[in-house]
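Running this now, will post back.
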Amino acid sequence: MPDSRKIIHVDMDAFYASVEQRDDPSLRGRPVVVAWRGARSVVCAASYEARTFGVRSAMPAIRAERLCPEAVFVAPDFARYKAVSRQVREIFLRHTALVEPLSLDEAYLDATTTLSGLPTATATAEAIRAEIHAETALTASAGVAPNKFLAKIASDWNKPDGLFVLRPHRVEQFLTPLPVGRLPGVGQVMERRLAELGVATVGDLRALPPTELERRFGRWGRRLHELSQGIDEHPVRPERPTMQISSEDTFTGDLPLDALAPDIVRLAEKTWAGYQRELQSPRARLARTVVLKLKTSDFRILTRSLTPPAMPDSPAALGQLACEMRNRVDLPADTRYRLVGVGLSGFIDADSHAIQSGLFEADGRSP
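Update: finished.
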């Protein structure tokens, strides 16, 4: 097991719910569910008190209410959560410039070499957790390991408010008894397919010949074999390039396709605002594709995308194009929709776009 890297994965404990409990003392010790009430809402976060009742993130809010009738529902305040996330990010950057945020509440850090001069990655993780608690009054769990996927598993090992260190010489022993579903990318469908091969644990997976895995699953089979051995060569990437900017909303009641225009226009304005922030960033990237997302009343998800010769130049133009993309939906006219989203994707670097445009102009062709 190579040990050239020392990776920390930091995960804030029940982040949104913990912020709410911190800022409102009356919520402390009570089952808090961060969600809007209603049959169409989903849980954004649940405190550990609520989790004991089986409440989990992404669960329908109405089900959470049935599982925990005494739960306190709090509407999410993302501006506040983002402010705390920035505080935590600043703490990370005191210790290493190699920080890869995954979301508001978790990040990978490469602590192979640190700015703080602490002797080990373990000491760095301990210092970060202590500073987070001292400066935000919140707790975080951390995992220290030789690579990213192992560090992520490790951070979940002693939650909440815990630290788990997985040293290189113990990786195989640690992984062998784990359910294969703990590996990244192995969902319920893949678990069932592996179960058909007699694979229930990572040790079972490791015992299969890599040629057999590759024959059945292609390149993903090779990746599974590497993960079973604890191999992950992906580096921590401090700046993750923008891949998509989108806004979506769930309706209070299902709507027909021809009634979605006002919501599409509204969401296009939100997406456009996010795109303008991207264009103002030091490493701005340009979108090339417009995406319309729909979810039917029976939870079927559809996406329609279009890469036009020229991108919309205003939120109104984006909204108009997204509305026109409804013509590409071929479901029955009486289909009802519970969600719509408008997005921009196909991002490329602004410099790359300028070079391509210059080539077109030199050729006498329009882009």
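DSSP finds 14 helices and 14 strands in the chain. More later if anyone needs it.
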